[in-house]
Amino acid sequence: MNEYIYRLELIERLNKDDNWTDEDNQIVDKHFNYLKELLNQNKLILAGRTTNEDKFGIVIFEAETDEDAQEIMNNDPAILNGIMTGQLYPYRVALMRKG
């Protein structure tokens, strides 16, 4: 298995809390459930986001091929539904805390 990381950024409209719709929130719920499913499949290594003004998220995961990795990122509901953009990179975890 190869490791990959994708960086997620909200579309500009969603940088203001007042612009979020119920549909946007439902998409984020689907995004979270998608990541939980990747975790259940032992594909997800970690996922999270920054909490400062320059918000972005990262998803570190395993896939067999570059094409599989691209498909995993493209099938993320946040990307599929256009509320986030994603950039995919090959990645290798060098050190990781146990437990």
Write the layout of secondary structure elements.
Elements: E1 2-10, H1 22-40, E2 44-49, E3 57-63, H2 66-74, H3 77-80, E4 84-91
Antiparallel strand pairs: 1-3, 1-4, 2-3
What does this entry look like structurally?
By secondary structure, the protein is an alpha+beta fold. The protein has a single domain, classed as Alpha-Beta Plaits, CATH 3.30.70. The protein contains three helices and four strands, in the order E-H-E-E-H-H-E. It has helices at 22-40, 66-74, 77-80, and strands at residues 2-10, 44-49, 57-63, 84-91. Strands 2-3-1-4 form a four-stranded antiparallel β-sheet. A hairpin with a 7-residue loop joins strand 2 and strand 3 (57-63). It is globular, with a radius of gyration of 14 Å. The mean pLDDT is 96.
- Biggest sheet, spatial arrangement of strands: 2-3-1-4
Number of domains: 1
Radius of gyration over alpha carbons?
A: 14 Å
- Kindly report the CATH topology: Alpha-Beta Plaits
Largest sheet: 4 strands, antiparallel
Strand content: 25-35%
| DSSP strand tally | 4
CATH class, please?
A: Alpha Beta
Fourth-tier CATH superfamily name: Dimeric alpha+beta barrel
User: Low-confidence stretches at least 5 residues in length (pLDDT < 50)?
Assistant: none
Outline type: globular
